[in-house]
Automatic annotation (TrEMBL):
Species per Swiss-Prot/TrEMBL record: Salvelinus namaycush (Lake trout)
Keyword Cell membrane: no
GO cellular component: endoplasmic reticulum membrane; SNARE complex
Main location: endoplasmic reticulum
CDD domains in UniProt: SNARE_SEC20
Protein name: Vesicle transport protein SEC20-like isoform X2
A Gene Ontology biological process term: retrograde vesicle-mediated transport, Golgi to endoplasmic reticulum
Length: 197
């Protein structure tokens, strides 16, 4: 009986430990979700947080029900032992011990089941955190690449603007050179025609 009490206490401690871990992970997820810049990422994370919170509440409810069931079972066994007295006390004590052992075993199994569920929840939350951290890193890297591309595009735009100005300047110079050339040719032709006349 004492070893099962120890086992029950160990299960309760594990449940409390997992409960605290889940609360911390859910809180971290919630904070990470609120810090997201992209609205769709924020909504997805907050939805995941809500799902984990509901699971956490479900686990807590199951734990409370298991505790309540064990207390009710122990109360019923005590009532029965008080109601039966005298000669049947030895027979009833044996039944009570068997009932207590069965009740203790059932409670321990319930607590272990809850402990396993909470452990799975912690594992799932950790996997979600890892996935979110990886996707956040990918988003940051993509953002850095976009910034680099923006710089390259702006440099390209400046170069194109510069070459467009040079092209205009070159056309103007070619036009002026052609005009000077034609003016020189007309001047020479005019001098020669007047010379012959």
């Amino acid at each position: 009986m004492a070893s099962s009490d120890v086992h029950v206490r160990i299960c309760e401690q594990e449940i409390i430990k997992y409960d605290l871990e889940i609360k911390a992970l859910v809180q971290d997820l919630d904070q990470m979700g609120r810090e997201q810049d992209k609205e769709s990422d924020k909504l997805a994370l907050l939805s995941e947080v809500d799902r984990h919170r509901k699971q956490m509440v479900s686990n807590q409810t199951a734990w409370r029900k298991a505790n309540l069931a064990s207390k009710l079972s122990l109360d019923n066994l005590e009532k029965e032992s008080l109601l039966y007295g005298g000669d049947s006390e030895l027979r009833h004590r044996k039944v009570t011990k068997e009932g207590l052992a069965q009740s203790s075993s059932d409670i321990t199994e319930s607590l272990m089941s809850i402990s396993r569920m909470m452990s799975q929840q912690v594992t799932q939350s950790e996997e979600t955190m890892t996935t979110l951290a990886t996707s956040s890193q990918a988003v940051l890297e993509t953002n850095d690449e976009f910034k680099a591309m923006t710089g390259t595009i702006q440099l390209g735009r400046k170069l194109i603007t510069k070459y467009n100005r040079r092209e205009l300047t070159d056309k103007l110079l070619i036009f002026l050179a052609l005009a000077l050339f034609l003016a020189t040719v007309f001047y020479i032709l005019k001098k020669r025609f007047f010379f012959f006349l």
